[in-house]
Amino acid sequence: MSWTTTVHPWTYDFDYLGHLTAAVYPKAFEQARMEYLRDRWRTRAPAYVVASHRMEYLREILEEDGPLQVVMRPVRVGRSSFDLAELLLDTGGTVRNRSEATLVAWDVEARRSRPLTASERAALDADIEHASPDRLQGPTTADKQESETHDGC
Question: Core-most of 12, 41, 88, 119, by most CB within 10 Å?
């Protein structure tokens, strides 16, 4: 199952060229991850760290393109880590950024990774099992063309 939240960039998140500065993209995804895991793991403070994060900028985002939507879903669940597929969409639903992140469950006391709990795993597995074919399955032809030409970037 895909999960969606809205992100509202601030005016100062846009640079002198008029587009969303590159530093804001990871913050938008992190905000959405926190909301997703709070919802799915039913906790105010989900304990995880980002082990890797890869983004592909497909098109620039202008201030008038907001508010933005982050769509995500888990695509793999391991012993202590899991992968999320993520999209950043403009107000019209156009994919502007594609992201893949590996998160690791974190033991706050021991300061190291920990195995996912049964309930954390069940929540992530349920979203994988209920996934329907959608834009998070892989790039569409239009997305590939945008990526190849870096239109607007």
Answer: 88
Unique residue bearing structure tokens 């959405």:
32
Report pLDDT for 140.
41
Q: Do 116 and 105 meet the contact criterion of CB atoms below 8 Å apart?
A: yes
Statement: residue 138 has pLDDT above 70: no
Secondary structure, 3-state, the chain: CCEEEEECCCHHHECCCCEECCCHHHHHHHHHHHHHHHHHHCCCCCCEEEEEEEEEECCCCEHHHCCEEEEEEEEEECCCEEEEEEEEECCCCCEEEEEEEEEEEEECCCCEECCCCHHHHHHHHHHHHCCCCCCCCCCCHHHHHHHHHCCCC
Pairing relationship of beta strands 68-77 and 3-7 according to DSSP bridges? antiparallel
What pTM does this model have? 0.84
